[in-house]
Recover the amino acids of this structure.
């Protein structure tokens, strides 16, 4: 028998980490690139800031600085595949700046880029590195921006249906616009409504009761402050429509407190806020323990959407994927395409890493 010496894999280290802001009109992507000592690159995404800023790039400068000025200098030279350890060390060191907010937003971009890099080095999609898909497919919904126009709402919904969606999410404050959509498209169309914490408790209850009459699947972030768990629970107890929320929670402890209220049926963590894919797996486990539906929140077309899909497929609790759906005149600057839908559903991605590459 011929015995051969084992060949040791090259240990690649982090050579550079850099966040950049891509802007196209009012839309932007905050992209984080990690390059290793072999020249391979992973691409991630951090949260994108407040959408109505007059200068979009100004709104995300603090997040970009967290990546470039705080975290990157501490992570250079680290073993690129030690993702769990890197995440914890970065979070633990940065804790004095806060354990959420812009710290975890910046950390999200680095974490997603490291997972993308890890998958590319192994030639595997990220979900395969995490044990493979727990589901065959997941339904997707088209998430429309606030349109405030009956004509635009009908036009954009029809365009989404023509693309293959069977569900849409509205960001409208007038329930009669939702009623119009129900009349126009019937019960076959699944409708969700997100008001981004616009109401107080009394207003939210009245609004939610009207949405219940219209057969809306969920009422999302009904009250302000959006993290007022007691107020959310009051609304949930007073209406028949299921509640969704969680996009403005950050840590596993935050999600545990929210879930203990029993108010939510649909849990919506935002992967670019919570610190990336590494902590996302722990939050998915909480959704499973509390027996709620995991529906990753996302409103960017780029690495964040693709990372959310990989994450969703690792949990049997996943029920919906959010696809941003903008009017054709508005394009996200990263330049990725929407993943393919089959009968309104997305299937496991097959490209290496996050499977997300800009077109052209």
């Amino acid at each position: 028998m011929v015995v051969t010496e084992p060949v040791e894999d090259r240990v690649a280290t982090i050579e550079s980490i850099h966040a950049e802001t891509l802007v196209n009109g009012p839309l932007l992507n905050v992209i984080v690139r990690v390059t290793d000592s072999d020249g391979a690159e992973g691409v991630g995404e951090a949260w994108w800031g407040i959408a109505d800023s007059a200068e979009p790039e100004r709104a995300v400068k603090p997040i970009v600085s967290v990546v470039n000025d705080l975290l990157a200098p501490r992570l250079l030279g680290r073993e690129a595949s030690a993702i769990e350890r890197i995440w914890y060390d970065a979070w633990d060191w940065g804790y004095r700046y806060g354990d959420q907010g812009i710290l975890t937003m910046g950390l999200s971009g680095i974490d997603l880029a490291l997972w993308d890099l890890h998958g590319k080095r192994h030639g595997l999609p990220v979900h395969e590195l995490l044990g493979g898909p727990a589901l065959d497919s997941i339904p997707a919904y088209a998430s429309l921006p606030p349109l405030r126009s009956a004509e635009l709402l009908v036009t954009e919904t029809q365009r989404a249906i023509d693309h293959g969606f069977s569900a849409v999410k509205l960001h409208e404050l007038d329930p009669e616009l939702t009623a119009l959509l129900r009349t126009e498209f019937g019960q076959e169309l699944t409708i969700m409504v997100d008001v981004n914490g616009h109401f107080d408790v009394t207003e939210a209850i009245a609004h939610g009761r009207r949405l219940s009459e219209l057969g809306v699947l969920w009422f999302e972030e009904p009250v302000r402050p959006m993290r007022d768990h007691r107020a959310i629970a009051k609304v949930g107890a007073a209406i028949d429509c299921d509640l969704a929320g969680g996009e403005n929670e950050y840590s596993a402890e935050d999600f545990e407190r929210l879930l203990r209220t029993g108010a939510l049926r649909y849990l919506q963590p935002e992967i670019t806020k919570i610190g990336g894919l590494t902590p996302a797996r722990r939050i998915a486990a909480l959704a499973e323990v509390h027996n709620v539906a995991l529906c990753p929140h996302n409103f960017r077309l780029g690495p964040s959407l693709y990372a959310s899909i990989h994450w969703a497929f690792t949990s049997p609790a996943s029920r919906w994927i959010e696809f941003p759906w903008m009017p054709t005149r508005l394009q996200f600057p990263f330049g990725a395409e929407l993943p393919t839908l089959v009968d309104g559903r997305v299937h496991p991605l097959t490209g290496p890493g996050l499977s997300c590459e800009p077109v052209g």
User: Anything to note?
Assistant: The two ends are 52 Å apart (CA to CA). The first strand starts at residue 14 and ends at 24. Residues 102-122 form the longest helix (21 residues). Confidence is low (pLDDT under 50) at residues 1-8.
